[in-house]
Amino acid sequence: MSNRISKMRNFVIPIHFYVRPIIGTILIMTTSIAFYIFGIVAIQQVLVDNGSIVTDYLRSMVLQNIALTSIFIARPIPSSLIIQNVIDYRATSPVQNDLSHLTSNKTVLQGIVERSLLYYNNLANKLARDAKHSTPTGDEAIDSIDSTRVLTKKTKLSELLVLTTPCLMEDEEDCEKKDRIYGQDGEFAGLSGLIEEFIYELSITK
Description:
With 206 residues, the protein is mostly helical. The chain folds into two domains: 2-150, no CATH class; 151-206, no CATH class. The protein is 59% helix and 0% strand. It is elongated. It starts with a helix and ends with a helix. Keywords: Membrane, Transmembrane, Transmembrane helix.
């Protein structure tokens, strides 16, 4: 009797009817968990990449300010020139929203360059290694940014920033122009080498 009942039960509801839903449920749960984990990892990586972009942008902005201040030192603003103060309340930088800081006093400008060089070096050092292995700068705004190295073996930036080149070519015939400025001693080790040469000259002449 029991054998007949077992055969009837298997005939009415086959065993593979249970197996397939169980396998399907396991696959769905595994896929969902894997998707959730990969999503978290991807979000963390995006945040780190954004931190690198922000840090690199800050470094470029500081370098531009250093270059502009250096021009003011080399070619002081004439005292006869009256600068109309323009205040932009939308700007977050006090340098950008108030032009009253412009001066022809070289001592003040050299102090700005000196402090800016320290800030630039801190940003450059942070971009040279992972945030976990970078040396604290003492600047909370910089140290709180989670970032990774900008230059790695896989990035194409190394070709532009590190490899030796005779000049930076924006147009096709740039390197043929004799009056084009590019490095004081001929070739330089990429754009980074040119920037470091500029920073070095500022450091010894500030």
